[in-house]
Amino acid sequence: MFIQVIHNITDTSLWSKRLADFEKQEPSADFTLHCSGTAADHTKAFCLWEAQSVNALQSMLDAATDGAAQNIYYTLDEKAPATRLPRSVVAT
Fold first, then answer.
1. What is the pLDDT of residue 25?
2. Which residues are bridge partners to 63 per DSSP?
3. H/E element, 18
4. Can you tell me the mean pLDDT for 46-59?
5. In angstroms, rounded to a whole number, what is the distance separating the alpha carbons of residues 5 and 56?
6. The whole model's pTM is what?
7. Residues 6 or more apart from 31 whose CB is under 8 A from it?
8. Between the CA atoms of 60, 85, 12 and 23, what dihedral angle is there, to the nearest 10 degrees?
9. H or E element: which one contains 62?
């Protein structure tokens, strides 16, 4: 399933440190990060993951961003109007 995460960044310095630490690790093969981005003012970020469950992803990301962001998770309806996923992640 595809899971969108919105990160409301509460501590930009800690966020930068947490991201640097996270990028040094290889996430489990159970998780695939397809894209991510950060707002120009660094108050919000998003990421699009493929994972087996929201709970599994939430456990990993909440630990990785602890103290730096409040995270909102939701599964995507791939067939909903105006939903556009990168072609590389959509099964043909």
1. 87
2. none
3. helix 12-23
4. 95
5. 13
6. 0.86
7. 49, 50, 51, 56, 57, 60
8. 50
9. helix 54-64
